[in-house]
Amino acid sequence: MDHNRRRFLRAATAGGLAYAFGRAPGSVMAQVASVNTLTDYKALVCLFLFGGNDSWNMVVPRSTAEYNVYKTSRQNLAVDQAALLPINPLTPGAAQYGFHPSMAELQGLFESNRCAVMPNIGPLIAPITKAQYQAGSVPLPPQLFSHNDQQDQWHSLKGRSLSKTGWAGRVADVLASQTAGQQLATNISLAGQTLFQAGSIAVPYTMGATGAQTFTGFGTTGINLARRNAFETLAMTDYSDVYERAFAATQQRAVRYADSVNTAIMSARPTLAPLFETASTNPSLASLSRQLLTVARMIDVRDRLTMTRQIFFISLGGFDTHDDQLDDQPNLYAGISKALKAFHDATVQMGISDRVVAFTQSDFGRTLTSNGDGSDHGWGGIQLAVGDAVKGREFYGSYPLLQIGGINDVSAGRMIPTTSSDQYAATLAKWFGVTDAQLSQVAPSIDNFATKDLGFLI
Amino acid sequence: MQKFTSMRGLASAGIFCFGFMLTACGGGGDSGGGATTDSTAPAPAPAPAPAPAPTAPAITRAEAYRFLNQATFGATLAEADKVIAQGYGPWIDAQLAVPASLELPLVTTAYAALASPSTMAGSVNADRVDAWFRNAIAGPDQLRQRVAFALSEIMVVSQTGALVNNVFSTADYYDMLARNAFGDFRTLIQDVTLHPAMGVYLSMLGNQKANATASIRPDENYARELMQLFTIGLVQLNADGSSKLDAGGQSLPTYDQAVVEGFARVYTGWRWACSTCTAFAQARQTLTPVNNQILPMQAFPDQHEGGTKQVLSYPGAALALIPAGQAPVKDLQDALDNVVGHPNVAPFISRSLIQRLVTSNPSPAYIGRISAKFENDGSGRRGNLGAVVRAILLDTEARTPIAAGTTGADTQGKMKEPLLRLTQFWREYGGKAASGRYVFANPSNTFGQGPLQSGSVFNFFSPTYAPAGEISTRGLSAPELQIATEYVNTLVTNYFYQQSFCRNQSPISGCATNTADTIVIDTSADITLAADPAALVKRIGERLLAGQVSPVLQAQAEAQVARVGAATTNQRVAEALYLVVSSPEFAYQR
To answer: Cβ of B257 and A320 within 8 Å?
Structure first.
């Protein structure tokens, strides 16, 4: 890879390909030679909830027996039973559940079969019971309950390996030859660089929440064109250290993508923006709305950018609710709910709602017990998937018993996941076009689980 | 830390072992010893063994620039002259003695001038950032400030979040880091632990004892991060920073959940200092501005866990269980002694500081040499940060470049942090506003980072970050590249465009009018060379890159200058300056 890239850079610097339009260096020659073989369009939108979402307050038992267990464990962190927004799964269980009172839109998406709930999911290497956990007889991902390590687990599914790639990056790697005609990288982040999108060969592209940033002083004629050419030549020079090489490659992508992305975004339909509350006084909602509007616009102009597979990364922070949890959660959850609903409406308007799946990930669930006015780092938690390709109005996996010291609790109300992040990723990746044989490249521990596809996607 | 494991260690060992076998620490050009004490060091620092320097060769400007980009907020011609005249060792020793430039006085003054202090406290964050820039650009204690900045990225607190209205706390926290930058590590950790900024940020402030009926247990936030991020990391390390492995080749954790819970119990019962309060609940609120915002937290026994507390077990640990019934302060002393005494601290902190100052990928031997200095500064003292910093900067791996084509040559050095690209530019080109202020409240919006503005306790970037491609596949790290995204790089490049073309003493036509608060640079000296593109670019290259300008950069900048009419001297300078300052070469720290 590196070899090819540098050879290309030399050639480009010599003059021939200076304006070869396009994607990450190293893929340019492949692009010239091949086209996309995946002709149907699909997009995944990963919403990462940074800090560890206390999701036991997001989807809550509302039938009295189960609510009372919840209330006993959560004490002053509990949401009022009467305020929960009822949901009615197509396959009803013994217990009944409701969304947090700030999530009316997600309640509606669930009830209209467009939202699925994964009720106790987290990083695992193999299925594990409480007894096995206590005996230490089943391998575990290292550093449970640590923010950055468990973020890394969600991003990478690396288990105990030393991998420096993420599962979305590996999806892009696996599909590279089938997406070679795309003008942009398969992985696009609106929220900075993450391990999630790092591939071995597939380089993600990072843009801003409202679009790509264009360069001041670059133009198409005269001195402004010359300035751009000079800048780009410096970005295509073959430097003698790894740092400058990587930096220069980023500069190249920045120059080349900025114009194409923003030109394309400007051609997105103007009727998308009114769906989103980008100016909300709820900062969580404003932030997510800005990001999801941009994602919607990018999806709308997919043909112009010859994109057939896209994985977008967006994020919301503020979930590390050690303090003031009951004050902070309503805004966070309202932001998720309203923004995901607006985004789904946008995909419906674009006629592509069955080709786009939005899904959540987060560091971990949190402890049922309290610090006084907040909760601590846990393990399993609830995740959501939204879209018309989702077989909604169902729970995939079993909701845990929210009891301190209970069958699912390792300590202080940290729930042992009963579904693994690998199964979640494998389900999404398979829908996206990864074959069964390739799934273990994306989700390295998947073969340890009997169910490789959780079944929540059509 | 999980990712710093044996594979990398072994690879790096292979890379570096033959380059440095004969030169222990010291090396390259250290021309003298001298006192290293400063006003805050608790005991006299060691006089480094005065290597009988056999005719140390003169320091070149390029060497001085490399050194100053490691040791200050950016090399300048003027400071390089000092290093060349003094030698590295004496320059460092002089710096070790300079007292800290502070942020709090400026913040206090700004607060006093507010029309409505009670509702505008958060606006003073801008004044804290102003103070940071003043000290970074012109503070006489450059080395101290640079180390304080490094520490602020290891022991992170941030104005974003709960501290937004506690600006006195954040300013004083930074000042505390600066005061302790060359001091004793154990003292630093205690000052960090009890600082109310940290107390608020990682929720030790207000941490209460368990209450089973209310389903409350001690908050584990600070307990976890102090160990994971500030002192020992997640896995057991050898002195050279490589991971210890079990028989199965797996790394060994430094602690488990029981230890986290033990430390969490230690850190119960602390709140804002309050001389009139007798109980935890009474000390809920901050008092008047400043006062208890800058005082160490106070212990209230009524909310302190009374039982035993499990702490770290390691060879040489004084105790593995803190006895029941001790006073909160005694518990804290025992617990901090326990964690700071852990053998991981030396390699963990050594590597962290090397990565911030010198290189992203230090060799195990380099980490090992600095660890040894941490364990014993030469006079028997452990944790003497002044001696550690001195050793980091004087080490052969910091001073002697690896020749091109030799193994390790293409991994030495690091990317500059984006903010350090800016500060170097401003330092060399006199960047300041007529008002004397640095009105730039949120540099993180442009540069992806700002002083005490991290999005989380994990800093702006991870010490193990590796972008896709050769850095990842070769098992290397490049932390700063995590924020050098297409998006941020473009914002930074555009900022440099505005600085080069508009925000200077002679803006090109079409620029917005500069105000008293516009931070402008002075390019007048360069303008005198505008008639000669080659000489102009060469001069700018000397000022920013010590003359180490690649032929392609020289050629591209020269050609661009020549495209501008000779009479438009300000634009000629701007074109050259912009291309140099936005170049990969200027973003790289050798």
So the answer is: no
- Residue B590 DSSP one-character state: -
CB B483 within 8 A of CB B418: yes
User: For B516-538, what is each residue's pLDDT tens digit?
Assistant: 999 999 999 999 999 999 999 99
Model confidence pLDDT, tens digit, residues A334-392: 999 999 999 999 999 999 999 999 999 999 999 999 988 899 999 999 999 999 999 99
Contact A145 B206 (CB under 8 A): no
Rounded to an integer, what distance in angstroms lies between the CA atom of residue B574 and that of residue B584? 18
B113, amino acid identity: A
Placement of tokens 């602690």 in the chain: B255
Report the sign of the C-alpha dihedral through residues B470, B471, B473, B476, in that order.
Answer: positive
What tokens appear for A269 in the block?
A: 């339909």
- Compute, in degrees rounded to 10, the torsion defined by CA atoms B479, B482, B483, B487: 150
Asked if residues B96 and B36 have their Cβ atoms less than 8 Å apart, the reply is: yes
Which of the residues A147, A242, A368 would you substitute to probe the B interface, choosing the one with the greatest number of B C-beta atoms within 10 Å? Answer: A242
Question: Using a CB-CB distance cutoff of 8 angstroms, which residues of chain B are in contact with residue A203?
Answer: 467-469
Most A CBs within 10 Å, among B157, B215, B563, to test the A interface: B215
Q: Count A/B contacts: CB-CB distance under 8 Å.
A: 248
Per the CB < 8 Å rule, is B215 touching A235?
no
- Give the ipTM of the model, two decimals please: 0.90
Q: What is the pLDDT of residue B53?
A: 53
Residues 325 to 354 of A: which have CB under 8 A from any B CB? Answer: none
By C-alpha distance, the chain A residue nearest B216 is: A370
Q: In B21-124, which ranges are continuous DSSP H helix?
A: 61-71, 77-86, 88-96, 104-112, 117-120
Average pLDDT in the B235-242 region? 98
